[in-house]
Amino acid sequence: MEPLSTALPGGTWTFVDSPVTRFGYGAMQLAGPWAMGPPADRDAASAVLREAVDAGITHIDTSDAYGPRFTNELIREALHPYPDSLVIATKVGANRDAQGGWPTARRPEDLRNQVRGNLRSLGVEVLDLVNLRMGDANGLRPGSLAEAFGTLVELQQEGLIRHLGVSNVSPEQVDEAQGIAPIVCVQNMYNLAHRYDDNLIDRLAAHGIAYVPFFPLGGFTPLQSETLSGVAERLGSTPKSVALAWLLQRSPNILLIPGTSARAHLHENIDGAALALPEDAVAELDRFGR
Length: 290
Ligand SMILES: NC(=O)c1ccc[n+]([C@@H]2O[C@H](COP(=O)([O-])OP(=O)(O)OC[C@H]3O[C@@H](n4cnc5c(N)ncnc54)[C@H](OP(=O)(O)O)[C@@H]3O)[C@@H](O)[C@H]2O)c1
Known about the structure:
Layout: E1 12-15, E2 18-21, E3 25-26, H1 42-54, E4 59-61, H2 70-79, E5 87-92, H3 108-122, E6 127-133, H4 146-157, E7 161-167, H5 171-180, E8 185-187, H6 198-206, E9 210-211, H7 226-234, H8 239-250, H9 263-273, H10 279-289
Parallel strand pairs: 3-4, 4-5, 5-6, 6-7, 7-8, 8-9
Antiparallel strand pairs: 1-2
Helix pairs in contact: 1-2, 3-4, 7-8, 8-9
NADP nicotinamide-adenine-dinucleotide phosphate (NAP) is lined by residues 26-29, 61, 91, 133, 167-168, 187, 214-219, 240, 257-262, 265, 268-269.
């Protein structure tokens, strides 16, 4: 495969044989409030996806549980046939209920159904990357992932999945997955204010495994702090830009998937993430986050 060249901030990362831009796009909130669809303005949502790809983004994060299904269907409508360079990462391990909840669904037959559902809604024969999402809507939960992850390994051996990852997991669960089969990424909640995974990120970097923080901007609760606002003001930037630039500078294995339903925000985030943070700003942000 041709090496990927990009003008996007952060350059590129490679999932074994699949290069991606470190600046990616998270599609969860495209479906509508609380990731429940249908989107109020379908054309506007499609336009954001096309704009992301036109800007050079080659990593989109999604799930059939977003919408549910609406987000994957939007991706298919807006982008199929997909450019060869595009890597669509999806995740399995939960369904949606009528109230918008995320009931866990990780029995072998649940996971097989979810993988088949993602193949159908995205309109592909092989999923580029599937994350097994552990825990529940309230966060991490201890316990073995062996049976569920083993099912995804079987689906990979059946040719339905190219790469595997894990999400919403403890360091012990990452170790357990790595003992079963290679993973290319860990997708956990992490941002300037939530630094629980600092050691894990460094350990994964040493093993060439990507770390993909979800809620890089705080998700449903936007990041807010006087320190962050102060640093942003001093640098003539915005808190969101500083938060994204900090993640890119934090470690080369961090891949960004900020979400937005607005084209203008997409461009603000791309421009903002290119900010070069001086050492004193990084030190100040470090003190706030730890
Ligand atoms: N593995 C998991 O368990 C898990 C859990 C949650 C999320 N995820 C993934 O992580 C991705 C990122 O998370 P997220 O989208 O929930 O949270 P996020 O990226 O931290 O923040 C997205 C929110 O920030 C707003 N925003 C973005 N850019 C902005 C800007 N320049 N100015 C003002 N507001 C801006 C968006 O609103 P607008 O739409 O108005 O721009 C949206 O409400 C998701 O899309 C999903 O793919 C994974």
